[in-house]
Amino acid sequence: MKRILINAGILFLLCLSAAGASAAERLEISFTYPSFKGDFYASGLVAFPPGAVGDENQLKVVNAAGLEVATNVKVRETWFDGSLLSADITFAANSSRPDRYHLVYGGDTLRAKRLGETAVLPVSAFSVGGAARTVETMDMPVGQINVRVDRSPDIRYYWHLVPLTALLFLTVIRSRRTSR
Amino acid sequence: MKKHQDQGGLKPEYASILDGFYRGLAPSGLSPDYRAETEVYRRRSRLASAGRLYESLMSASGVAAGPRVGYFCNLVPEELIRACGAVPVRLCELDHACARLGEEVLPGDACPMIKSICGSAAAGRYRDLDLLVIPAACDGKAKLSELLAPVRPVYLLDLPRSSEYLRNADAWTGRYQDFFDFLKERFRSRAGRSELTAECRRANLRTQLFRRLYHFRAGHPGLINHFDYFTLVSLSFRLEPEAWLDLAGEILAEAVGRAEGLKFDGRRILLAGSPIIFPAYKVLDILYEFNCEAVADSLCSGYGHLYDPVEIDEETETGIIRALALKYLAASLCPCFMGLNKLLDLLVDTTAEYRLDGVIYHDLRLCQVFDMQTVAIRQVLKEKRIPFLSIKTDLGREDTGQLKTRIEAFLEMLG
Amino acid sequence: MKPRRRITLSRRIIQLACLILLVYGGYLFKGRLAGQEANVGEPPGTGGSLFPDLKAPKGAMSTTQFAPGSILWPSGATPVLENYPPTLVCRFNPKGGLFKACIVHFFSENFTWQTHLKYLLPHLTLFVLLCFLLGRFWCGWVCPIGSLGDLLSWLRRRMNVPVRRFPAGFRNALVFSSYGLLGATLGISTFIGLPNYSRFQCYWFLPYCQICPARLVCPVFGLIKPGWKDFTNGVSATFTLLAWLVLGLFVAAFYWGRRVWCHLCPVGLVNSWFNRGAGLELHKKAVKCNKCGYCADACPMGLTAMYEADTDRKYNQNGCIMCLRCLEVCPKDGCLSCRFFGRRVLESRY
Prior knowledge:
The complex is a heterotrimer of chains A (180), B (415) and C (350).
Chain A: E1 2-4, H1 8-19, E2 25-30, E3 39-47, E4 59-62, E5 68-69, E6 71-78, E7 84-94, E8 101-105, E9 123-125, E10 127-128, E11 137-140, E12 146-148, H2 155-158, H3 161-177
Parallel strand pairs in A: 3-9
Antiparallel strand pairs in A: 1-11, 2-8, 2-10, 3-7, 4-5, 4-8, 6-7, 11-12
Chain B: H1 3-6, H2 12-25, H3 35-44, H4 50-58, E1 68-71, H5 78-83, E2 87-90, H6 96-102, H7 112-122, E3 131-135, H8 139-147, E4 154-157, H9 165-186, H10 193-219, H11 226-235, H12 241-257, E5 267-273, H13 282-289, E6 292-297, H14 303-306, H15 317-330, H16 340-353, E7 358-364, H17 368-372, H18 374-383, E8 388-393, H19 400-413
Parallel strand pairs in B: 1-2, 1-3, 3-4, 5-6, 5-7, 7-8
Helix pairs in contact in B: 3-4, 4-11, 6-7, 9-15, 10-12, 13-19
Chain C: H1 6-41, H2 103-113, H3 117-134, H4 137-141, H5 144-158, H6 168-193, H7 201-204, H8 207-211, H9 213-221, H10 234-256, H11 266-272, E1 280-284, H12 294-298, H13 305-308, E2 313-314, H14 325-329, E3 336-340, E4 343-347
Antiparallel strand pairs in C: 1-2, 1-3, 3-4
């Protein structure tokens, strides 16, 4: 049994895939611009739900104007049906012209611009999807996918504090009334 | 093994001198005849099966064959004696004729029961027994172990006087274990825990029936009257458990069958204090005369002898002996042990549970300890608003008139 | 048969049933659950179970990592139910057992993994609820190690060996030591969970479990040789020797005494904090007591409060394992009673 602990982004994508994988997804890419002025690579590991991204060309990165940016995609892992599980995505950005980028995948998305990654540039890591959703673990036995995902909000756990406190309080009160 | 215990601490030379004195006291023996009394009580009984009860009081049937061990007080575990193949006979008696003979041996202001026992011994009534077991419960009993030594071999069961379980349980177990070892050697028995368990079971069967009878009497007063009740208990002093169960079972069955629609318009009281043993039924006679029934009691010749069961927690030999020690010693109500709390609890609880009219404290004159705790009982019961009467008497019938007046006044006061 | 006798009889039946359930529950229910698990995975995100299964984070030590024969083996098979009941349920069961593990295992493992508090809350709530309702009832009626000890005591009684009664001071010293054991376990577990000290995890992981007699006993129930020795280095050799010593103590404690071990058990200690406030109460009607001492004599934990009591009150003691033996042996009708939140459930009868 192979056990992979995946990061918060996976879960977000998994949730979206559960909602419906046919339409193209558009996720904001967030990173901090480095202090120097000039070109650099934004790079990040992104995970996808099963069946959402058929191959490395069914995703692209667009800027605020909606124009595609040249990207380099290196597939890390694939799902059992051959679709992408996770991939390293790298694209070039310039810190003197800050822009907002989005990751688009799914549906009929097709990547047109490829980045050869010839220049040696500083790298800034990015993440997708904004705030992280919790995920427990992901088990991948051979031949089947065994995923246990927790999509529930924190309140699902924290409400236990109410009965827990009440029970402890009652125990203390009742103990005080009992002679030693 | 322990020669000094066997002989009760008296050298053979001195013992034979004392024995000669005893034989001179009652050369022809003494065998009081109570047929007239049994006939009176048989007629007073409302049960047909009581005839058999009073018959067996006079006959020797139902007593098993084998070496007989006489013992005093309900502090001696009869289960141990039975397990060794001997027959335990409780010798506690309150016999006026014997007591008068006992006054030749003992001072007049000794306890009537001690005098009675001593008189019986001097009259040679214990000579057919194989062993006498005397617990050092009170000073009188302890001294008896020496005075009775010429009559029969005596084993003195020396017990600590505090009935506090926490401090004494180990000591009691040790004393009982010694006693058991002594019995095993004496009667050449190889008794172990299977014999002990069997004997405890027999005794518990008796306790179960006794408890049913005790509760029945409280609910249906007068049907098994207090004469029948105390006679039944004193029969258990010498009857085998099975013979006793047979007898008591018959009486209870008949009483239960006739319980329907029974009315009792008299007083129901709890009798506490010194033991009452046939034929010393003077107080019971007076109560009967005023239609008052002693439905509950705390006497060592009644409740105390049969009410407590043996609870075997650990079925090892030591465990069973320990359980016996707890049954006989920790739960004991004897005033010689420090158990006033238990007695007060029992009086308060039983009076409330059975809604009894009051408590009569039977105080056998000249027993100091019974007398001494009267004041505490009186004050506590006064506080708890339980009517209480203490009567001080002895085995003679001379004070009957005076007792009648006091008891009548008490019963009238109950309203 | 007297009606009261049934308390011990039913206790023995429940103990046996629980022994089978807790130890062989993995074998009995695993197949069905494994089938369910396969279905769960297909569409991802079907939601977590009521009790989130707590697993080791990447890089942290986990019982699944130990090879056969190692001191923390066998384990690793997932249990049938992912929670922690208030009694001794061993993780070191082949096939995982019915429940995940005992509460001490729960604390030491999750302190090491530094699991987020919120994931512990559901488990803790269930634990506290059960303890609040029944107090240390689990020790007397459910705990497989306690049942095994009762079996040893029974053997002793069969062989006519009298019970050793230990003085209160000795028993208090055992309770004191159990605080020490629990404190040391939690301390070590937290320490090796700190980022800079994770290198200690390979030898100090689950320190109490390594010496707990259940770790050696429970695999034997599953016909598997436990990891009974490891002399690779000083720490593991010490743990091995300690484990042997504790197992010897365990057997001796149950053979010569009754439930002496239970004074030392940290799981019982955690349960005992709830005893005096528990819903299951023991009451005494003092006026009915004839001071025979049978209750104190029969108490496997050697408690005497019930005997000493002179007023009508609730007498729940920290050490009480709710075996109700006192109530069973009490020869006075209605003197001792067992109540559930004040409602009378059982009372002594002869």
